[in-house]
């Protein structure tokens, strides 16, 4: 799996004019976005996703990407090629691989009431652990679980499902289906269905903590 993480301005600086590479479904989605900032973010994600597909899967030429009905990114015309995109705090992250993949990135710099949010997305045992931590440690722990859960859902083609998220738990497992790392003020997680490959390339300095997802009743 290839995972790329970059600041949006850096991605756009090396990006050719989108009229030369956007597919019709992407162009339709771009026109529907209501602000220049959202359009810039969308373009940065779509361009970095192409680089991830090329580098991670050895796809020759410029891959065509479509927008699925739910908004996910789909590799068109290449069997066994999958890509996922996430954005946060001016950064864009992409993962590409030969199995269904999901990625999520979140910023620790964004103020949140983590205990209140945990009521919606984390189970009782996770909430109890969060309550026992200092605010700084709580922020990272909350986002590690959040990003793992969202990446896991994306790898299975699902949108946010808070009830299901509350029932997801993670056990350390070097052969698991999810992994998470911290890069500066960002928390980044990836997932693949049914499991991650042995190597996750593309993010210098990433100390991936791998885990196996359990779906609790």
Description:
The protein has about 220 residues and is α+β, with helices and mostly antiparallel strands. The protein has two domains: about 100 residues, Ribosomal Protein L22, Chain A, CATH 3.90.470.20; about 110 residues, Ribosomal Protein L22, Chain A (Alpha-Beta Complex). Strands 6-9-8-10-7 form a five-stranded antiparallel β-sheet. It has a three-stranded antiparallel β-sheet with strand order 1-5-4. It has a two-stranded antiparallel ribbon with strand order 2-3. It is globular, with a radius of gyration of 17 Å. The two termini are about 30 Å apart.
The total count of strands amounts to 10
> What's the rounded overall pLDDT mean?
95
Helix percentage range: 25-40%
CATH architecture call of the largest domain:
Alpha-Beta Complex
CATH-derived topology of the largest domain: Ribosomal Protein L22, Chain A
The rounded Rg comes to 17 Å
* Integer tally of domains: 2
Strand-residue proportion: 25-35%
Count up the helices.
7
What is the CA–CA distance across the termini?
30 Å
Oligomer: single chain
For the largest sheet, list the strands in their spatial order.
6-9-8-10-7
Order of helices and strands: EHHHEEEEEHHHHEEEE
Give unreliable regions as ranges: none
CATH class of the largest domain: Alpha Beta
Which term fits the overall shape?
globular
Structural category:
alpha+beta
Largest sheet: 5 strands, antiparallel
């Amino acid at each position: 799996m290839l995972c790329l993480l970059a600041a949006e301005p850096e991605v756009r600086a090396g990006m050719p004019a989108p009229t030369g590479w956007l597919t019709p479904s992407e162009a339709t989605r771009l026109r529907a976005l209501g602000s220049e900032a959202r359009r810039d973010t969308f373009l940065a994600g779509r361009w970095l996703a192409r680089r991830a597909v090329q580098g991670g899967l050895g796809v020759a030429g410029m891959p065509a990407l479509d927008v699925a009905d739910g908004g996910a990114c789909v590799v068109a015309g290449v069997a066994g090629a999958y890509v996922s995109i996430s954005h946060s705090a001016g950064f864009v992250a992409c993962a590409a691989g030969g199995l269904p993949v999901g990625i999520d990135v979140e910023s620790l710099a964004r103020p949140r009431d983590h205990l209140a949010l945990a009521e919606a997305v984390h189970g009782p045992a996770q909430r109890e652990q969060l309550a026992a931590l200092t605010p700084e440690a709580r922020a990272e722990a909350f986002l590690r679980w959040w990003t793992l859960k969202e990446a896991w859902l994306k790898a299975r083609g699902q949108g946010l499902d808070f009830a299901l998220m509350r029932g997801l738990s993670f056990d350390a497992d070097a052969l698991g289906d999810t992994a998470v790392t911290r890069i500066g003020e960002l928390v980044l997680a990836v997932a693949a269905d049914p499991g991650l490959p042995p190597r996750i390339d593309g993010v210098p300095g990433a100390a991936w903590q791998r885990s196996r997802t359990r779906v609790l009743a």
